[in-house]
Amino acid sequence: MRQIPSLDRVFRSLGAALSRDKRLKRRFAREPQFERVVWDVVLERCARYFGKDTVPDLLLSSHKSLNLPGRSAEAWKRFKEQGGPNVEVLGSGRRLDMVVLVPGTRRGLGIEVECLSGKNPGNQLIVGLGQSLLALAKRDCVILIVNCPRASRKERNELREVGRRMLRQAPRLQLVVTP
After folding, report:
1. What is the pTM of this model?
2. Where are the domains of the chain?
């Protein structure tokens, strides 16, 4: 019988895998491209953690237009019916890009994907941070992964340092900066 890792272990391990994976070490022009590669990394890790057969019920995304391999429309529908994805605040139903549910528990983690490629990447970052913080109302922990295709190495390192300082106060949130 497969030993199911704890949510904390999945959270830490998945954040580390996303920060190290070579496929994410490039600059992406558009968010859907970046999100597909993030999905592939998360899918592989979830198969390792929970078993390949269970992944469609545990790794969820609302993005049917991305044609994500292994995505189950039925599992997403059940999750929605159980009140899973949206955090309703001030008339805005915000949701994360992906959710990983830990089998045998009622716990899960969220993943927000942002590609800071627009005219104002700072605003895109603020939206991603806001969505990630709001998601903590429903998720046990959240990983925000951002790709900074127009930022210099120095700017990306500054963002990582700001993230480290900021997230010391928010242990249930991780920031992964790529490339």
Report:
1. 0.93
2. 7-178
